[in-house]
Amino acid sequence: MTDVFTPEKRSWVMSRIRSKGTGIDIKMKEILTHTGIKFEMYPQIPGNPDFASRRLGITVFCDGDFWHGYDYRRGKIPKKQFWRNKIECNMERDLYVSGMLRSNGWSVLRFWEHDIDGNPDKCSGKIQRKIRERSARRGSKQSGRGSGRRAARHDSR
C-alpha cells in the first residue's frame, strides 16, 4: 500500500505524535487515582515508566498497540522495513527495561492501549493485586525489622 502523504508530510504528521500526555496515559492516571496509592506520572527512573509508586516499588507502562508490537503477537507485521525495525527495537527495549527494573527490585506492570481503553476494570484489578502483594511484602519486612529493634532496645535497659 502506498502512503497517501509525501515523505515530508508523513514526517510532519509523525512528529506530532506525543509520547507524554497521551489519551491512554490520562486514562491510566484516572485508574491509578482510584487505587488510593500515590503514583508519580513520568518519574525520573531508569527505563522511563509512565507511572511509579516509589513507596511500593511499582512501575506502570502504557504501551501503544502499534508502537510496542501488539499486532506482532497476532501475526500482523508492517510491510515497510522502517516500521518493522522501529517496532522491533521498541519490543527489545521493553524486554530489556522490564528486566533491568525487576533486577533492581521494582515490580513492572505493562498495559496495552486497547486494554486501558476498552477494559479499565481489568487493568485496575491487576494493579490492585500488585498493590496488595507489594504492601504485604513491605509490611512483613517492616514488622520483622521493627520487632527486632524493639527487642534489642528492651534488652539493653
From TrEMBL:
Q: Which residues form the DUF559 domain?
A: 91-131
Q: Which domain of life is it from?
A: Archaea
Keywords, A to Z, come to: DNA damage, DNA repair, Endonuclease, Hydrolase, Nuclease
Taken from the record, one Pfam family name reads: DUF559
Q: Which GO terms describe its biological process?
A: mismatch repair
Q: What is the protein's given name?
A: DNA G/T mismatch repair endonuclease
Region listing for Disordered, in residue ranges: 123-157
- Positions with biased composition (Basic residues): 127-140, 147-157
- Give this protein's Gene Ontology molecular function annotations: endonuclease activity; hydrolase activity
**Organism of this sequence:** Cenarchaeum symbiosum (strain A)
The cross-references to InterPro entries, in alphabetical order and at most eight, read: DNA_mismatch_endonuc_vsr, DUF559, Restrct_endonuc-II-like
Keyword DNA repair listed? The answer is yes
